[in-house]
Structure formats: C-alpha cells, structure tokens
Design a protein that fits this description.
- The chain is an alpha+beta fold.
- The chain is about 40% helix and about 15% strand.
- The strands form two sheets. It has a two-stranded parallel ribbon with strand order 1-4.
- It starts with 5 loop residues before the first helix and ends in a 6-residue tail after the last helix.
C-alpha cells in the first residue's frame, strides 16, 4: 500500500478492528467501541506514525521544518473532534506498524 493512504487507512483499520470487539450497544456514535474512544480521550493523545517524506501528504514545511500535509491535517481534525492532542512521530515506513505499538517511539 502506498504511503498516500497510510494514515487514513490505519485509522479506518483501527476503528474497524476495534468495533468488532464489542456489542453494538457498547459502541459510540462513530461506530468505534465506547471504551476505546473513552480510553483515547482519557489518555488525551492520539499518537500517529508517519515517514514525513511524501508531499503533499506528510512532509516537512521547508520554512518551519514542521510536519504538514494532508495526512497531518486529517489526523489533527480527527483528534480535535475527539478532544485529544495529535502527537506525530517519524519512522521509516517499514517500521510503522511495530513502532506505532511502542510508547517510546520518536
């Protein structure tokens, strides 16, 4: 899969995977299990790994060196809707999945 679809696909996969872990009565309006959404909101942070090298989706602004792009905007909007702070960490694409499970990834 290309990196262009990585972040939205990862979010969709996580929501779908988590939605299969509960009964429909325990789901939030978004379809994700209520406890998963509550846990995320309690943590206050939505951690997302990105390579940061694939414009226009995820790259460094040449003037500020801040991560920017479509994927960054989408994750920031989702985090805002959930009432949490987005936290991005950079990783090589081949390590994205294992690295995203580690809390010390930077």
């Amino acid at each position: 899969m290309k990196l262009t679809r990585a972040v939205p696909a990862a979010i969709a996969a996580a929501v779908l995977a988590l939605s299969g872990c509960s009964s429909p009565a325990a789901s939030s309006p978004s379809g994700a299990p209520a406890d998963a959404v509550a846990d995320l909101q309690k943590a206050g942070v939505l951690k997302v790994g990105t390579e940061g090298t694939y414009a226009p989706f995820s790259f460094h602004d040449p003037q500020t060196n801040e991560l920017t792009g479509y994927d960054i905007d989408v994750v920031t909007a989702v985090a805002g809707k959930l009432g949490v702070k987005p936290e991005f960490f950079e990783t090589k694409w081949t390590r994205s999945s294992p690295a995203s499970r580690r809390s010390d990834s930077t």
